[in-house]
């Protein structure tokens, strides 16, 4: 940071906050580093970010996670700036959560006359940002706002004579780290726009909302974020903002199996929008690597009204596939239920030989996905499975000797506050886990590989590491075998939700939409293997 201080030494900084001044004073007292500062100036002028890299090395990942400080790689910044450059009239660039200024610097260089407004809460990052702007010769047309993006009022900045462009990588901070008053802000502001809001929304959702509040017709923008909001319930607000207020023009999803931000486990989608210039179709595009992003050309055209009605957007990235003739959705044949949530596996899961509880309350169950992967096409035995302790709601159903033992167990559980856990409190009786009946087919639903569909003739129960497939109408053993066999042979990771690094998850509804042969085809044994 002494180098940042050295780069800033020649500037008259009047608007720095107290923490920045403190950092600057420390930097000024550091050993003379003019030679190193010269080297850094050269590297910054060449488009590198040595100070930002130093910042990332200095700040531990745990501290950076709490403020969502993940800096954007060059190819993503270049692609987004290339898209912005198509609007040469841009008068002002706003970089919310600017970090070391990767977007601001690249946009400032590409859009010669534009003013730059960089908003950043972190004083150390702002010091780096100011040094970068200075070294890049952009300080004169920049304003660094020390504060929260949600409090920014753009009319307080120098008024532009052309469109404002918003560009950046809004911080990804999960909802449980967000202060209650900001959740209230989100609900109130979204409510004013008549939009749905979820308490689970992360900080990037707040940034989209604030952008919609600040932007006017003719403005434009491009943000890179993690891709979850495309499909999950809390993303509803972002989807609605993009369709109804921000004029989404295109989306560019980076294949979730790659890690676009280096070793940070996150996905990436780039959104481009032009306020007040909504087109009838929106470009949807998926690229295998960030190197393929290019200048964010529009991809497959998806009708705007489809976006409005779709509850998930990633399926729109691929043209719909027609299932083969005679195939139906799995949900037509079977209900797909998530396994039971115990709420405290350490209490409610035990070995089969647990002598401290009566055998009548111990139910062999699949409690680890590995047990299904290892089983192959069918569970051959209950041996090796652990048991779920499932007590009756009415303890009078136990005989007196069993009841004494169970009450001793419950006293210990209570002493460990198990009865106060979230799930326990929301059960009819905190002590009764309420296992579902054994499912004839049990499926894994979250792995870096396609799900395993395992026949369960031995009657194992399962907890929420797996889904159970329960036939709507009785099925013969042979049909169940063929159904599980065809699912294992044909289901790939497509159709699930892919998370960073290729982890794929099938919610029950997604599994129910898998195409399978009809019962008639299964009965005639005319199935793909
Ligand atoms: C994902 S980083 C992006 C940094 C930079 N724009 C880039 O892409 O390389 C998000 C930045 O937002 C900042 N930040 C977090 N919360 C903020 C808030 N409420 N207002 C303004 N900035 C914030 C963090 O300190 C961090 O530098």
- Into which percent range does the helicity of residues fall? 25-40%
Could you list the spans in which at least 5 consecutive residues all have pLDDT below 50?
Answer: none
Class by SSE composition:
alpha/beta
Number of helices: 20
The count of DSSP E runs of length 2 or more, i.e. the number of strands, is 22
Q: What ions, cofactors and ligands are bound?
A: S-adenosylmethionine
Question: Radius of gyration, rounded?
Answer: 28 Å
> N-to-C terminal Cα separation, in Å?
62 Å
Q: Tell me the strand percentage band.
A: 15-25%
Mean pLDDT value: 90
Strand order, sheet with most strands:
3-2-1-4-5-7-6-8-9
Shape: globular
**Main beta sheet:** 9 strands, mixed
Write up this protein.
The longest helix is centred in the last third of the chain and has 16 residues, at 400-415. The protein is built from 20 helices and 22 strands. Helix 1 (2-8) packs across helix 8. With 529 residues, the protein is an alpha/beta fold. S-adenosylmethionine binds at residues 67-72, 96-99, 102-103, 119-122, 125, 148-149, 168-169, 171.
Main features:
529 residues; 9-stranded mixed sheet; single chain; binds S-adenosylmethionine; alpha/beta
Layout of helices and strands, plus pairs?
Layout: H1 2-8, H2 18-29, H3 34-45, H4 50-58, H5 61-67, H6 74-84, E1 92-96, H7 102-110, E2 115-120, H8 123-135, E3 142-146, E4 164-168, H9 180-192, H10 203-214, E5 220-225, H11 236-246, E6 248-254, E7 268-274, E8 281-287, E9 300-303, H12 304-309, E10 327-329, H13 330-333, E11 334-338, H14 345-348, E12 349-350, E13 362-366, H15 369-375, E14 386-389, H16 400-415, H17 422-425, E15 441-444, E16 446-447, E17 453-455, E18 461-462, E19 466-471, H18 477-490, E20 497-498, E21 504-505, H19 508-512, E22 515-517, H20 519-523
Parallel strand pairs: 1-2, 1-4, 2-3, 4-5, 6-8, 13-18
Antiparallel strand pairs: 5-7, 6-7, 8-9, 10-22, 11-19, 12-14, 13-14, 15-17, 15-19, 16-21, 20-21
Bound molecules: S-adenosylmethionine.
S-adenosylmethionine binds at residues 67-72, 96-99, 102-103, 119-122, 125, 148-149, 168-169, 171.
């Amino acid at each position: 940071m002494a180098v940042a201080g050295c780069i800033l030494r020649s500037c008259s900084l009047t608007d720095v906050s107290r923490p920045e001044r403190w950092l600057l004073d420390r930097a000024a007292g550091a050993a003379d580093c003019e030679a190193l500062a010269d080297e850094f100036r050269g590297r910054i002028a060449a488009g590198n970010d040595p100070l930002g890299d130093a910042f990332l090395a200095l700040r531990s990942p745990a501290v950076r996670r709490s403020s969502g400080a993940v800096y954007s790689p060059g190819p993503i910044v270049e692609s987004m700036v290339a898209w912005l450059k198509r609007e040469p009239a841009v008068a002002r660039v706003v970089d919310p959560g600017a970090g070391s200024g990767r977007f601001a610097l690249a946009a400032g260089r590409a859009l010669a006359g534009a003013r730059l407004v960089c908003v950043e809460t972190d004083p150390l990052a702002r010091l780096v940002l100011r040094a970068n702007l200075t070294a890049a010769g952009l300080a004169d047309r920049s304003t660094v706002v020390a504060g929260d993006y949600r409090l920014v009022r753009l009319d307080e900045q120098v008024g532009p004579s052309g469109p404002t462009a918003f560009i950046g990588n809004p911080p990804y901070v999960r909802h449980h780290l967000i202060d209650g008053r900001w959740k209230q802000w989100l609900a109130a502001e979204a409510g004013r726009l008549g939009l749905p809001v979820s308490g689970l929304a992360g900080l990037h959702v707040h940034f989209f909302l604030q952008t919609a509040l600040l932007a006017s017709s003719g403005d434009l923008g491009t943000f890179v974020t993690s891709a979850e909001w495309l499909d999950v319930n809390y993303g509803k607000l972002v989807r609605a903002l993009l369709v109804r207020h921000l004029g989404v023009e295109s989306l560019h999803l980076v294949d979730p199996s790659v890690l676009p931000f280096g070793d940070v486990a996150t996905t990436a989608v780039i959104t481009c929008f032009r306020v007040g210039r909504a087109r009838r179709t929106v470009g949807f595009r998926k690229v295998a690597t960030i190197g393929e992003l290019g200048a964010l050309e529009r991809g497959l055209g998806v009708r705007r009204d489809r976006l409005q009605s779709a509850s998930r957007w990633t399926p729109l990235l691929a043209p719909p596939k027609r299932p083969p003739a005679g195939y139906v959705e799995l949900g037509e044949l079977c209900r797909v239920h998530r396994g039971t949530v115990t709420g405290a596996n350490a209490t409610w899961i035990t070995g089969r030989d647990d002598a401290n509880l009566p055998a009548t309350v111990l139910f062999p169950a699949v409690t680890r996905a590995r047990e299904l992967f290892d089983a192959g096409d069918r569970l051959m035995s209950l041996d090796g499975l652990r048991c779920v302790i499932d007590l009756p709601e009415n303890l009078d159903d136990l005989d007196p000797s069993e009841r004494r033992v169970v009450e001793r167990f419950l006293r210990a559980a209570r002493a460990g506050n198990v009865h106060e856990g979230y799930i326990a409190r929301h059960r009819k009786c905190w002590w009764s886990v309420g296992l579902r009946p054994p499912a004839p087919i049990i499926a894994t639903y979250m792995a870096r590989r396609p799900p395993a569909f395992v026949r369960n003739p031995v009657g194992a129960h399962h907890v929420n590491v797996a889904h159970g497939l329960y036939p709507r109408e009785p099925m013969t053993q042979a049909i169940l075998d063929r159904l599980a066999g065809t699912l294992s042979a044909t289901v790939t990771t497509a159709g699930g939700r892919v998370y960073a690094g290729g982890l794929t998850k099938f919610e029950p509804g997604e599994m129910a939409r898998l195409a399978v042969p009809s019962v008639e085809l299964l009965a005639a044994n005319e199935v793909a293997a």
